[in-house]
Inverse folding.
């Protein structure tokens, strides 16, 4: 029997859906959980500069006055109002956070949510965001490698020492340790190049494709499964959360190797009044 394709929603289009009442995302998460949806994801930007025309994946999908809630803080609030739904970042621009801060925040959220965090990470595309954060834009992928390896060391709960070009420390204990063994699953929102496939096979539980072309996703899945095999990991354990073009595309997504179908609220709903009906439809897909 084929494994059930899980259903995720992404909290996007907040200005249109919630206006000035952004606390409504908490009620929305509660409603999604009640409908049977498996996961809720929060995207990330610390700030946006005016040059969204530099977005490398086509037209930037949201207006310049769109509010961006900080993902880990938002998911902490959602964790307190829910009991079952998985809590995901999609994706957190990880290098903008110090490694020790990311390790502590993620572990805290994982503990308080009773092991529900899926940590989706990426390197971002906006130079201005890095400059304002005091973090070099160049070398950000290698910086993320160092950061995540450091997080893994700190998540052990034991005295940890770590050495890398961008992160180093000695005999640090970072408690509480995450509830999930080894720490929250790490999902990578990066292109499936050979080097990135190696990253995911070493450190990751899953892949977050940037685009939604099913043929490209299937090719990426094949690359990543081979990388898992070379790393001595079971390729069947690779998770893939991809944008669903429509609720009717689930079988095509599954055939491409997708394990979680993601629906962005910005694309799926024009007003908050539409959310209950949307969640009912998506919840039916999740059952």
């Amino acid at each position: 029997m084929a494994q059930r394709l899980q259903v995720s929603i992404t909290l996007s289009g907040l200005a249109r859906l919630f206006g000035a009442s952004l606390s409504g995302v908490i009620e929305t998460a509660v409603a999604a959980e009640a409908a049977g949806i498996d996961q809720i994801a929060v995207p990330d930007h610390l700030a946006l500069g005016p040059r969204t025309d530099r977005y490398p994946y086509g037209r930037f999908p949201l207006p310049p006055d769109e509010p961006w809630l900080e993902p880990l803080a938002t998911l902490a609030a959602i964790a307190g109002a829910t009991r079952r739904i998985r809590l995901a970042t999609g994706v957190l621009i990880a290098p903008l956070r110090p490694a020790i801060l990311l390790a502590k925040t993620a572990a805290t959220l994982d503990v308080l949510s009773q092991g529900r965090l899926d940590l989706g990470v990426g390197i971002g595309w906006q130079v201005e965001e890095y400059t304002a954060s005091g973090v070099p834009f160049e070398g950000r992928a290698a910086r993320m490698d160092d950061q995540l390896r450091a997080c893994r060391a700190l998540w052990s709960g034991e005295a940890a020492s770590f050495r890398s070009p961008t992160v180093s420390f000695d005999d640090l204990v970072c408690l509480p340790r995450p509830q999930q063994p080894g720490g929250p699953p790490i999902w990578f929102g990066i292109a499936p190049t050979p080097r990135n496939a190696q990253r995911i096979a070493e450190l990751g539980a899953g892949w977050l494709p940037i685009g939604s072309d099913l043929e490209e996703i299937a090719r990426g899945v094949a690359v990543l499964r081979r990388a898992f095999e070379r790393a001595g990991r079971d390729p069947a354990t690779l998770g893939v959360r991809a944008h669903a073009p429509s609720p009717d595309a689930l079988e095509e997504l599954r055939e491409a190797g997708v394990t979680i179908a993601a629906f962005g609220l910005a694309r799926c709903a024009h007003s908050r009044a539409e959310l209950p009906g949307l969640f009912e439809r998506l919840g039916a897909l999740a059952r």
Remarks:
- The chain has a mean pLDDT of 96.
- The CA atoms of residues 74 and 180 lie 20 Å apart.
